Amino acid sequence: MGGKEHVVKVIGGGAVEEGRGGRKSLRIKITAEVDGVKSDYEITYGRYGRRNAAIGFAAARADAPGGREADAERLSALIKALTGREPGVYRIKDGRIKIECYEGHLEGFRRYAELADAIEKWLKGTNHSSTL
Predict the structure, then answer these.
(1) Structure pTM?
(2) Contact by Cβ (8 Å): 119, 15
(3) What is the pLDDT of residues 54-88, one digit of tens each?
(4) Within 10 A of 106 (CB to CB), how many other CB atoms are there?
(5) How far apart are the first and last CA of the chain?
(6) Closest Cα to residue 6, out of 67, 61, 74, 58?
């Protein structure tokens, strides 16, 4: 990440499909230790726009060790380690940091047995080809 190496150890994870107001979302939860800091991370995927694109969002936490910046860097390193792709990281005007994952990241997450079934089910339930 940005020329810096990180040590990533995944401890556990899973994915669940959720529905709110007729919209289905996919919540991916991963417990990992990144650079010696253990944390629980969540990425929530939904369908957005006219192209019905699968986009996942996560937020860096201010209460994490080192603050939002450090949490965003650790989460980005975790996502890159699991999917092979760096996520988009954006600072919002109010100081929050938003992390975005796209369909390519979802394809990478799908390689893991703990996530694959829920991802497949969500993709089929949201009228999308399961062949990302």
Answers:
(1) 0.89
(2) yes
(3) 999 999 999 999 999 999 999 999 999 999 999 99
(4) 23
(5) 25
(6) 74
